[in-house]
Amino acid sequence: MTERLTAQNGAPIADDQNSLSAGARGGLMLQDWQLIEKLAHFNRERIPERVVHAKGSGAYGTFTLNKDLSDYTIADHFQGVGKQTEVFLRFSTVGGESGSADAERDPRGFAVRFYTANGNHDIVGNNTPTFFLRDGIKFPDFIHTQKRNPKTNMKDAQAMWDFWSLNPEALHQITILMSDRGIPATYRHMNGYGSHTFSLWNAKGERFWVKFHFKTKQGIKNLSNEQADKIKGIDPDHAQRDLFASIEDGDFPQWAVNVQIMPEADAERYHINPFDLTKVWPHKDYPLIEIGTLELNRNPENYFNEVEQAALAPSNLVPGVGASPDKMLQARLFAYADAQRYRIGANYNQLPVNCPHASKPNHYQRAGAMAGVGCPFHGSAAGSDSSVNYGPNTQQGPAQQPQVAEPPMDLAGAMDRYDKTVEDDYAQAGDLFRLMNGEQQQALFDTIASTLGQASMDIQEKMLEHFRQADVAYAAGVKAALEQR
Ligand code: NDP
Ligand code: HEM
């Protein structure tokens, strides 16, 4: 038997197809509260899209640990071979709006949430091990050059290359983006990276710097520019379709989870600043250590509730995992939860996808819009009942847990706005260029020329000088490709 149709107040609805009018051809009645409820709710169906990474796809799954990391960290999901932890992963493109095509040349977001017994741990990374910038203060300017021109409302190659030509720190990431890995064939056929340096700490209070790598077990597959252009026209949602269908079909995608680990003291003497997000740690210096498998095996039931309202944040850290002095990471620790309070509302962490599934939230934060939604995994929402709303108290309210305090981190130096241009911007871009075969290098030149050729001559010249500093053959190849246009 079908259930009865009701209004939001639960009252049964007799007729949901005809609005209330004065006569068969007459105007509508203000008293038609059913019509008003439907139209008014419809007007509020959208929330602001993410300011970046607006188009995305998500799924749940499992992380299985196959190497115990208790020597490095007390984090629950890294304890004991065979340990399984529920995960949620959202993939995305960066610059396009929520309706944009999945096959754009753009970094892909790779944002993983581990629902651990000690709270949600999010690694909000990309399919690239690096980023365009090493200081978050530049991020809004950079994104303005990736989004639409304020006058023409079109993408703006001149702005993009103007910014990049003045920020050579971007060259490594530009080389990755313009390479054959710049358009992954699907979300399943690409790697993910935590990108930043994070920290792990163990029961003895020792700290280690760590980088996370998620290596696809489906193999790397990419699209050429021509293939991508075709797919964008035929099926703008091809990556969403691929992910959803493969999980529905029981063909569960997997990634091998790896870490690079650096003892705390190494950071002082390593020849690269290990907190510079424009650089990788070469594998020969810090080899990959495989620690487990991440598998996606369950599609969300409702895209809006579980993917659009998912609120992943680098600040979602758990005991045993911490931040690092990486200036980009530090900026991100503020930006995400702030964006989510605006985008979803103050109590976004009570929504089922966001609340901690395996750790009961207990705090003294109260009220705000939509308070009391609750986390279905733990009965009532923290603060939705009449329990004590201040701490400390003598009423057996939730108590601090000093045993999970992070060990102290030594910081030193005078407060200043340090000029980071002293860092080397070119060596690793050159390393990547030299790693490519001739065919890959030619594709790189052509792809760069296709948009750099739309920028003015002075900017092209500046870029050629940057390519030259990475590798003379890099500059020569781009120059030839520009001349052939
Ligand atoms: P390695 O030879 O040990 O590693 C090269 C890495 O490059 C591999 O991880 C490979 O991934 C990856 N790779 C190959 N082609 C591309 C591409 N077009 N875009 C992005 N990554 C690619 O060398 P190093 O560790 O010394 O690093 C050399 C360069 O490799 C770096 O400058 C960086 O650009 C790139 N790289 C390095 C990573 C690191 O963490 N060290 C991670 C990813 C890239 P796979 O094994 O999946 O084929
Ligand atoms: C999304 C800011 C750098 C990966 C977002 C959002 C903001 C933001 C505000 C939207 C969050 C939301 O509404 O839920 C910033 C700032 C940065 C920065 C200020 C630099 C200081 C980076 C870097 C990476 C990254 C370096 C990857 C290494 C992502 C991903 C998402 C995202 C994957 C989408 C998360 C999801 O799927 O919901 N960023 N970002 N960002 N960002 Fe960043």
Automatic annotation (TrEMBL):
GO cellular component assignments: cytoplasm
Enzyme Commission no: 1.11.1.6
Origin: domain of life: Bacteria
InterPro entries (UniProt xref): Catalase, Catalase_3, Catalase_AS, Catalase_clade1/3, Catalase_core, Catalase_haem_BS, Catalase_immune_responsive, Catalase_sf
Catalytic residues in the record: H53, N126
Keywords, comma-separated and alphabetical: Heme, Hydrogen peroxide, Iron, Metal-binding, Oxidoreductase, Peroxidase
Reactions mediated catalytically: 2 H2O2 = O2 + 2 H2O
Cofactor(s) in the UniProt record: heme
Annotated GO biological process: hydrogen peroxide catabolic process; response to hydrogen peroxide
Domain Catalase core: 6-399
GO molecular function terms noted in the UniProt entry: catalase activity; heme binding; metal ion binding
Biased composition (Polar residues): 386-403
Binding annotation for heme: Y336
Residues covered by region (Disordered): 386-406
Protein family: Belongs to the catalase family.
Protein name per UniProt: Catalase
Organism name: Ferrimonas marina
